[in-house]
Amino acid sequence: MQTITWNQQVVKRNNKSLVLQTIIEKEPVSRADIAQITGLNKATVSSLVNDILEENLIFESGPGESSGGRRPVLLHFNKTAGYAIGIDIGVNYVLSMLTDLKGNILIEKNQPIKNVAFDAVTDVVSEMIRSLILEMPKSSYGAVGIGIGVPGIVDKQGTVLFAPNLNWSNISLKQHIEEEFKLPVLIENEANAGAYGEKQLGAGQSFQDIIYVSAGIGIGAGIILNGELYQGKNGYSGELGHVIIQANGKKCSCGSQGCWEVYASENALLEMAPQQDATLESLVALAEQNDPEAIALFEKIGVSIGIGVNNIINAFNPEQVIIGNRLVVAKQWLEGPILETIQTHTLPFHQKEVQLQFSQLSVYSAALGVSAFVVENFIRDGITVL
Amino acid sequence: MQTITWNQQVVKRNNKSLVLQTIIEKEPVSRADIAQITGLNKATVSSLVNDILEENLIFESGPGESSGGRRPVLLHFNKTAGYAIGIDIGVNYVLSMLTDLKGNILIEKNQPIKNVAFDAVTDVVSEMIRSLILEMPKSSYGAVGIGIGVPGIVDKQGTVLFAPNLNWSNISLKQHIEEEFKLPVLIENEANAGAYGEKQLGAGQSFQDIIYVSAGIGIGAGIILNGELYQGKNGYSGELGHVIIQANGKKCSCGSQGCWEVYASENALLEMAPQQDATLESLVALAEQNDPEAIALFEKIGVSIGIGVNNIINAFNPEQVIIGNRLVVAKQWLEGPILETIQTHTLPFHQKEVQLQFSQLSVYSAALGVSAFVVENFIRDGITVL
DNA sequence: TAAGTTTGTATATTGACCAAACTAAGTTTA
DNA sequence: TAAACTTAGTTTGGTCAATATACAAACTTA
To answer: In whole angstroms, how large is the CA radius of gyration of chain B?
Structure first.
């Protein structure tokens, strides 16, 4: 039995976290506002705010507007008290960025890669991290951590168990990067990272139960339930791409048959295209010129995506389904068929009120997601330590 | 923002709950043991135990064995401090039971019903509750609540939105029963109730992430994540029976096509049977006499169940999948095909370590589940009130 | 200018857990 | 068989965080 005992330190830690979270979400805000919002006593808020001020995570600014009495001292989140590094390892690129503690991008680097071997990729990653740290502005806490999104199955220890498109298996990526930079490192599946990014900074900010569908070369999903990323027993939930939507259907690279991603991914699209050298971009270009064949192709993929989304809605009863990753560029032709498929298939009660949206952060979802994760850990641990 | 502030009362409530939970799980147990297990100070435990003693939820028994010093006073959970009523409304029966606070069945009543109209069913339910309360032994708290499992979609307010097999829609069942008996009432979907029953009292006791598949006339599922029932935004998650496993497949009563339950439920079985008047029981009887046709039929259903279970494992990465409800009687012929389907389809990493089991509580899963739910609420609220 | 309002701080109190001393009731050992 | 040791549980006094209350500071309004 994993038991947690409760004592005054826990109380203080949680209240402090609550106060800081309130400042982050509502800044600029006065002590009096915080007391009103949280229900904590004015004196308690005052004391906690002073603690956080000493930690440099917030700062005071000149007095705000009076509402008939003494003017309030406004509190702001010190979003440049430190910086987070977010990295998205794709199949043919590495995207890295430096963000402040609110997820604003300060520096962004994107490097195409051809050699996906582990050593080659980590060389690129390491070099990028080094240069980001060099270019980073001075701050109280410096780099607070490194987050990395990977297109594959990652366990809770940060080991990449299997990344078919990179040809990786059983790679202790977290340990490797941690040893080099002596900073907290966090590895996440690309879809989970994207889900978290959209939840914190993109389309999902006002929802608690979200399924993020990463529709790229394959299909993955990030599952956010009750506002938190659900990871499954071992951390590898969300392989929705390998849900069977056609029993005894087409062979899938995973060894199974009829998997969703065989019908609804970028790979599926390219395989169905009549042109030998079709790419997602070339098909989009054709569709933009009203090429009926290309449009029909996208619509077919849209229906297949819709089938899978139907399954998601019936299974999870989420508030929101977000479609992300590469296929978002074809939103224009996909959205209609997806919606129509849902309308004709999904249970009416489940359909009602569910939001279907496309990614708001486009190619940045995953990198911003891991970066936001890093920030969250930093803030939680910072507060814990005291 | 729904904020929770932390103070000493919260600390005490949680620690008290922790102590009581420890006693329930480990009884008989001494104060010293509890201090050791929970990490709380001996003095704190003593004080909390005395509080709980006053509430009559536990009692002391004669001293236990010495381990080289003073003999401990053993503490026991007072499982007869009150009783819970659990009811399972089926399509052609109402099963009701009185349980003690540990989920032991004291009285059990089962009544077949023909008329599924709301009024007729609630008359039966009310009559059963009345007689259970009359037969209930004397106790400190009496009947602590009523739980009802229903084969349909239930929202978080206890309204039965839609129960196709009962022909019910939009029925405020909770309100109705609450008004009659002035007791806390709780309504749950039958699959959710079954999942909770197996988790607390049956096959799932040592697991945290469990999917319970209720394979009966239709298919439903209860989803337990991180040890808690996941209900979705509106409380109607788990309609896994309407996940599409065959795009453009057979028509389903829900209006969609190719739903899992069209291929893997009791209804699917009976539809495929050559006999006009086949029932699940008659087919089991045939299979027991080694009738090859009947056995082949079950095996076919088994493969279809396996497809859906594959989808569950890939999507949720659970620790355990439990198959429950009526089809469990055919376990002997279903288990092989299900396992084989998983082995040939499910992602290897996800397959590893996942447990496939059949219900341990047989027909009692749902009724025991709601009853356990009632007990949990009683204990939590009792402790809250002080 | 005086009265009323709002913000934020200071002080004393409350109540929870905890450490340590203590009482109670055994076992072990010489 | 008595002294030494062990273990269980209670009592006492202390600490810490939140709170209620009073109050000072700063502003608005009539």
So the answer is: 23
